[in-house]
Specification:
By secondary structure, the protein is an alpha/beta fold. Helix content is 28%, strand content 28%. Strands 1, 2, 3, 4, 5, 8 and 17 form a 7-stranded mixed beta sheet that branches. α1 packs parallel to α3.
């Protein structure tokens, strides 16, 4: 029988251009979180490498079976007897790169993988320009994975802006939803907290998201503020800045049933069509 309560942690990072240094940092963060009592630890999007330059990125990425950060996180999960969710790694996938999340159980086995569905192609008012589709392959399938406590829905960063994805994950049984991220500072300041609270409230689910934070070696600046939000939209833990570190919170899964009983939107949704009315004048 699944346990109703466990301790979750997020490892906030400032990953740079050196995969070995990032690997050491994330393993240290996972170990610190476990020492603080975490049973489940999540890392951010692009845990192993934050790199904007295409040539440099492709020189450093590896296929999944050869990725040393994945291997190190599997070893840590096994050694510590905890569940680890790698927010994502850059994994060589043909002539492009997959932005891929992994769920690792307490034996070190990979129990689920997910490729980011929605790619961030945008021009921001401050001059930042992002074209993830020029480098990354988009996923084709949403993923709900089993844990010792409850099913968890895997998602990554920009996915957070697509409520239909989160509703589908919740309808498929997920009680815990995620959005490990490398959110830009500009968009994070405007939307990070409100989007997390909205996704939690809409689905009656926990939201757990580890984040990258600060100015990275490749020049980008990310928002940080790793978050854990309960199904009523209450913030249980917030990194409250962009510095590397860990946050922890107790996850009481009875809150999921309570929130969904109070506001049963997952049960009450009805199919509908949209009728667009013509202008009358």
């Amino acid at each position: 029988m699944a346990e109703p309560t466990f301790v979750a942690a997020c490892v906030q990072m400032r990953s740079g251009r050196d995969p070995a240094a990032n690997r050491d940092a994330v393993v240290a963060g996972i170990r610190d979180a476990a020492a603080a009592g975490a049973h489940y630890v999540q890392t951010p999007e692009m845990t192993s490498l934050v790199e904007r330059d295409r040539a440099s990125l492709f020189a450093k990425v590896r296929v999944q079976d050869e990725d040393e950060t994945l291997a190190a996180c599997r070893d840590a999960a096994r050694d510590l007897g905890i569940v680890v969710q790698i927010g994502s790694l850059a994994i060589l996938n043909g002539d492009k790169v997959a932005n891929r999340a992994f769920l690792i159980d307490a034996t070190g086995a990979i129990t689920a993988a997910y490729d980011k569905l929605h790619l961030y192609d945008v021009d921001l008012p401050n001059g930042e320009r992002w074209r993830e589709s020029s480098i990354y392959t988009g996923g084709a399938c949403a993923v709900v994975a089993e844990t010792p406590w409850a099913p968890i829905g895997l998602a990554i960063c920009y996915d957070l802006r697509f409520p239909a994805l989160y509703r589908a994950l919740a309808e498929a049984g997920a009680s815990i939803l995620t959005a490990p991220a490398c959110f830009t500072r500009q968009t994070g300041e405007a939307h990070w907290h409100v989007l997390h609270r909205a996704r939690a409230i809409e689905t009656g689910s926990f939201m757990i998201s580890a984040a990258q934070g600060g100015r990275h070696e490749d020049g980008r600046e990310t928002y940080g503020h790793s978050l854990i939000v309960d199904p009523w939209g209450r913030v249980l833990a917030d990194a409250e800045g962009d510095a590397p570190g860990i946050i922890l919170a107790e996850i009481d899964l009875a809150r999921v049933a309570d929130a969904r009983a109070r506001i049963p939107t997952l049960q009450h949704a009805r199919p509908f069509t949209v009728e667009r009315m013509p202008r009358t004048s």
